[in-house]
Write a structure and sequence with these properties.
The complex is a heterotrimer of chains A (297), B (567) and C (323). Chain A has 297 residues and is mainly α. Classes of the chains: A mainly alpha (297), B alpha+beta (567), C mainly alpha (323).
């Protein structure tokens, strides 16, 4: 189940004494739980990044579809093999790569859209703002999975790029509200009026004042957003409208073994554990960051 | 003892004896058969149905004029037993057969079965507005006349070995008085389609889509009441749930066990399995026409040499073993070994990957940087459809995908629900698809699925659009021969022709294995329809379980009352 | 209060109107014509096609189609589901109560369980119990819904066969059971899916409530209570909880989307005949009208849910009620 993004719009001084990134990193490194989370996440990310190097087998290779299919975990295949005699460990490692990549890219799309939408709404104000917010409320009222199903059923054969785009298009709603709040707060802040009076251009204001204040909510939203997308993509692949065969994603692997869950338990267990740990670590880190930024303001 | 008392006792004893004999023959009556199945029937109208489940239910509710025997002898009438027709007479020139309808035959609503029903059934089956696939199969029948209410005469164009088979097997008889008033194009969604009235030994009770179909014994049936009093199809959302319901005792029968289920069944001492020779074969067929423009050949599959190369690149034996283990044989072609006319040693395209690569090279398909073959800017890439409802077909598709990848072919597997898949095939809007035909007892059914007429007719099922007049000629000659040796020779030539043309990669011939509860006493399982003898199945009274004795439904059953779940 | 309700309902109407526009756009942006799935399908009778053509004006210009579409929606008509061969609203109306049942039980259960866990954690804050419970909470929070459902199905219907394998009722026997047996049958089929959804939703509540309680604890009135000599437990129960319960109510409204999403996977895996299963099945059959109908209905549910929660909040908080 997902967490909620809280609407906070702290009004802060124009130049923070410590950059948000440094603050975040320091907070993470301080607590034991978030250090551990960072390490675990790092291992998973590294495994995914180095997949071609460390995966023992080609994830799509079907070496012997008669003798090597449906094997339980063993030394040769630590996570067993699937009904197509593909090595599950290799597929999980490549799955890490694909699922995390999809998560990161989709979140980037969401962030861009969210910031843009929120900034425009907050800046424009008035009727435009009201209308944009109502549209936003409408999107927010549709559960994300449902919206994705609605979109993906219409476009049956999707490439991964398109999947990333659609995932991104459906994840920017919460962030845009926060951004809008920031922009509104900033519009009326005194130092802004002062800066305008001093002749600062709009772009300069945007650059020096707005964006630094946005870094914190963006970083938090990004971290939690990736976690959310990883779970979503797993769910979509499980329903059959996510990553297509023969590419491996965590949800895909569970789906391959969904027919014989009891007999092929390793196909549900290992990818599932990886999803859980990835999401757990991202949540721990995201919340640590949120604590850091909230405490500051 | 006083004489009166003795008399009373004697009477009582006699009475008990009478009651005893009555109940001992009536005792074998009763019991419920619950069949676990993974799919919903599509439509319960005999000329229109296309799912196995619909066929099973229809065969219980409707009847044919005569039924084929277990040996599946389709030539002339020796192998047939009477059903609605209690006798028949051939004309001297053998161009017509007069069937006499059993005088006791009645529809489930009480009306008598008449020869006009037979005539009506034939006319509807061949009505192009109905769009039934049966039309192509009964092309030899010119017409059906009904000189009186008990006689229906079938008139044929020509004398063929399968005249009788054509007249009886293809057309379960439907009640004219119910269907006459509905235009054929509206049959599908109509009310009678949802509550079929037939003359068979089981009456329709209810159908809750995706959940249950229930039939009850027609105790007043003219052929006698069947032994089991209720038949229930328990429709599970997927194969796995269907098997689990069978293993857990919620159902009594499961029709297609997979290799991985067998060890589980072995763990349950009250369950048994039985294998029989099936009439099904599976394949991956190519659309020989361009989906964008049906008058042009497919840009990839229009090339016969390429199709042969694709077949050569596939290790079919391994594929079949991987998916079916020991429960299937590699398919020989569009023919099953159960036919006496099939030569088990048909020449096959061998598995030879290096040679396949050579052929593709020579055709101009060269490997590009990503390992996919290309020719004139076009990639050797296509989509392969598979019914998501059949895990085995999906498996075949994914295995095929990888095997063809070795040859430099890029295959995208697309999973669709079965009805959507059929729709795409019907519109020829596909590249390749995994399919399976559960063939009929007559080897002539091949005309519908691979013959030119099956490709041209709007209701034909030759979705691959394979058209080869040489093949058609061999099949026609085979079907016209009364000599079994000649027929087999012609069929062999026909099969060799189509195997060489490779409009499909022939995959597997499954050996169906059913699972059943040991309390059931089965009758022989007919190869084309294991359910054909269900009315003879019974459960000994001492073995009955609680649900066998549940009270039966009321006679007039509502279709779907409010409050029933429709998932 | 009434004015507030009217205002919120008005906003909700606007939102639903926008959602209808979004779905209309979706229908017509999709490749191919989603209506063609119905119109070209030989399984659909001519009668239905004619009705659809008339209702939606399928050969008319787009703006007119939109007006007709909105008009149909206002009358509660959402098109024809060809995979069910019934109107979409009929399919959803039959399926919705099952989903609501699941969600209602999960709502009550998860909030109960979550608040309980939070109380235990705060009573023993800083101890190993607190940390363990936090870890367990986070673990279940991070689990994909379908994964837990698969594991639950495996564990409790296969390894330890306590519950039936999916469905809402026994498909064969239910019609022939007596009333008492029927109720038991339904409950027995309801137990595992409801339990699973509860376990999925509880961690969010637990984490939220724990944070809310910890926020409240340093407050002045708490210190006063402590000085007065109340035990920790009494403080928690009498003062902290009551004040920390308020933010929980806002969580009720926020949890609707998550519960609905969770219900989707639970319904698919347990074959529970609710809205989620209908829509998931519609994916395979490309029954687009049904999916779109589900989207609209889902958004209405979420909107109404959040209004309900807001009303609850206003009613519960005496400070707000005074306004």
């Amino acid at each position: 189940m997902s967490g909620q993004t809280r609407d906070f719009a702290p009004i802060s001084s124009p130049r923070p004494r410590e950059s948000p990134l440094a603050l975040g990193v320091r907070r993470i490194l301080r607590a034991r739980s978030s250090r551990a989370a960072l390490v675990v996440l790092g291992i998973i990310v590294l495994a995914g990044a180095l997949a071609p190097l460390i995966a023992p087998y080609d994830p799509a290779a079907q070496p012997d579809i008669v003798a090597l299919k449906d094997l339980p975990p063993s030394l040769a295949h630590p996570f067993g093999t699937d009904p197509y005699s593909r090595d599950v460990l290799s597929r999980v490692i490549y799955g890490a790569r694909l699922s995390l990549l999809i998560g990161v890219l989709a979140t980037l799309v969401s962030l861009t859209l969210g910031v843009a939408y929120g900034a425009i709404a907050g800046y424009a104000g008035g009727l435009v703002d009201a209308l944009m917010m109502r549209v936003l409320d409408a999107f927010l009222s549709i559960p994300r999975l449902l919206l994705l199903i609605g979109v993906l059923v219409a476009w049956p054969r999707l490439s991964i790029a398109a999947l990333v785009l659609f995932l991104g298009f459906t994840g920017w709603f919460g962030l845009s509200r926060i951004v809008r709040g920031q922009v509104l707060a900033l519009k009326h802040a005194e130092f802004i009026t002062a800066a305008r009076a001093l002749g600062a251009s709009r772009r300069r204001i945007l650059w020096r004042h707005l964006l630094p204040n946005l870094v914190s909510p963006i970083v938090v939203a990004a971290t939690l957003g990736v976690a959310h997308v990883v779970v979503l993509e797993a769910g979509l692949s499980y329903l059959g409208i996510g990553v297509p065969q023969p590419q491996a994603s965590w949800g895909n692997i569970i789906q391959d073994g969904a027919d014989q869950v009891a007999a092929l338990w390793w196909m549900s267990l290992f990818p599932g554990l990886f999803i859980v740990f990835t999401v757990m670590t991202l949540n721990i880190l995201g919340e640590a960051l949120r604590d850091a930024y909230e405490r500051r303001s | 003892m006083a004489p009166v008392k003795r008399g009373v006792l004697l009477c009582m004893a006699l009475l008990c004896a009478c009651v005893g004999t009555e109940s001992s023959s009536g005792k074998s009556r009763g019991g419920t058969l619950v069949i676990s199945t993974g799919g919903d029937p599509d439509v319960l109208i005999p000329p229109l149905l296309s799912t196995v489940q619909a066929g099973q239910i229809s065969d219980m509710v409707y009847e044919r004029l005569a039924d084929i025997g277990d040996s599946l002898n389709t030539v002339n009438d020796a192998g047939f037993t009477s059903r609605l027709a209690d006798r028949w007479t051939w004309s001297r020139d053998s161009l017509s057969i007069a069937f006499h309808i059993d005088s006791g035959a009645k529809w489930h609503d009480g009306r008598p079965v008449r020869s006009s029903d037979v005539r009506f059934t034939f006319q509807s089956s061949t009505d192009s507005t109905l769009g039934s696939g049966v039309k192509a199969l009964v092309s030899n029948i010119d017409s059906v006349t009904a000189p009186d209410s008990a006689t229906a005469i079938f008139w044929f164009h020509a004398r063929t070995p399968r005249q009788f088979y054509d007249a009886t097997y293809q057309m379960p008889i439907m009640p004219e008085h119910i269907w006459k008033v509905i235009a054929p194009s509206s049959w599908r969604g109509s009310d009678p389609a949802k509550h079929p009235i037939g003359s068979g030994q089981y009456r329709f009770v209810r159908w809750i889509p995706r959940a249950v179909v229930e039939l009850a014994a027609d105790t007043a049936n003219y052929r006698g009441a069947p032994k089991l009093s209720r038949l229930i199809w328990s429709i599970a959302p997927d194969f796995n749930t269907a098997v689990t319901r069978f293993l857990s005792g919620e159902t009594d029968f499961f029709e297609v066990l997979r290799p991985e289920n067998l060890p589980e069944v072995a763990k349950h001492p009250e369950l048994r399995t039985k294998q029989y020779r099936g009439l099904a074969y599976s394949f991956a067929w190519f659309n020989l026409r361009d989906p964008a423009n049906h008058s042009r050949p497919h840009p990839i599959f229009g090339d016969r040499e390429l199709r042969r190369a694709l077949t050569m690149a596939t290790d079919r034996a391994k594929l079949v073993r991987s998916v079916y283990d020991s429960l299937a044989l590699p398919a020989l072609g569009p023919a099953v070994r159960a036919y006496p006319t099939t030569d088990p040693n048909l020449a096959q395209i061998p598995f030879d990957l290096p040679r396949a690569r050579q052929i593709l090279d020579s055709l101009g398909w060269r490997l590009n940087a990503e390992g996919v073959r290309e020719r004139n800017g076009r990639l050797l890439q296509f989509s392969l459809l598979a019914a998501s409802t059949s895990k085995q077909r999906v498996q075949l598709a994914v295995l095929l995908q990888e095997q063809l990848r070795q040859a430099g072919v890029k295959v995208d597997v697309e999973q669709l629900e079965f009805p959507v898949l059929v729709e795409r095939e019907r519109k020829r809007a596909f590249d390749a698809a995994i399919g399976q035909w559960n063939t009929q007892p007559s080897p002539g059914s091949i005309r519908g699925s691979w013959g030119t007429m099956g490709s041209r007719a709007s209701s034909g099922t030759n979705y691959s659009s394979y058209e080869n007049p040489v093949f058609d000629a061999y099949v026609d000659s085979a079907l016209a021969s009364f000599d079994p040796a000649k027929a087999k020779a012609y069929f062999t030539r026909a099969y060799e022709t189509i195997i060489e043309d490779a409009p499909a990669i022939w995959l597997a011939e499954p050996l169906p294995t059913v699972g059943y509860h040991s309390r059931l006493q089965l009758a022989p399982l007919r190869s084309d329809a294991w359910w054909a003898h269900i009315p003879e199945w019974w459960i000994p009274p001492d073995k009955r379980i609680p649900r066998d004795n549940a009270p039966g439904p009321t006679m007039s059953a509502p279709a779907e009352s409010a409050g029933k779940k429709t998932p | 209060m009434l004015r507030y309700l009217a205002r919120r309902l008005g906003q909700a109407a606007v939102i639903v109107a926008i959602v209808a526009t979004i779905t209309f756009a979706l229908i017509h942006l999709a490749p191919g014509d989603p209506f063609s799935a119905v119109m070209d399908n030989p399984n659909v009778s001519e009668r239905v096609r004619a009705t659809l053509r008339a209702q939606y004006g399928l050969d008319r210009p787009l703006p007119e189609q939109f007006v007709r579409y909105v008009n149909q929606l206002a009358h509660g008509e959402m098109g024809w589901s060809f995979s069910h061969d019934r109107p979409v609203q009929a399919v959803l109306a039959t399926a919705l109560p099952n989903t609501l049942l699941l969600m209602a039980i999960a709502l009550v259960g998860s909030f109960g369980l979550g608040i309980l866990i939070a109380l235990i954690q705060v009573a023993r804050r800083g101890s190993t119990t607190d940390h363990t419970l936090s870890a367990i909470s986070l673990f279940f929070f991070s689990m994909p819904d379908f994964w837990l459902a698969i594991l639950a199905l495996l564990a409790f219907t296969y390894w330890v066969p306590l519950f039936p394998v999916g469905g809402a009722v026994d498909p064969v026997m239910h019609e022939y059971m007596g009333l008492g047996a029927r109720i038991v049958d339904r409950l027995w089929h309801l137990a595992l899916p409801a339990l699973t959804l509860t376990v999925l939703a509880a961690p969010t509540v637990a984490r939220f409530q724990r944070a809310a309680l910890l926020d409240v604890l340093p407050a002045d009135y708490i210190r006063t209570a402590r000085l007065k000599g109340l035990t920790e437990r009494e403080i928690l129960r009498r003062h902290a909880l009551r004040n920390a319960l308020l933010p929980i109510i806002s969580l009720v409204g926020l949890s609707f989307p998550a519960l609905l999403t969770g219900a989707f996977f639970i319904e698919k895996i347990f074959a529970w005949p609710g809205m989620g299963l209908a829509i998931v099945n519609a994916i395979g059959t490309r029954d687009y009208p049904l999916v779109v109908g589900g989207v609209i209905l889902g958004s209405i549910m979420v909107t109404l849910g959040s209004i309900l929660a807001d009303l609850l909040y206003v009613w519960a908080d005496p400070r707000l009620r005074a306004n």
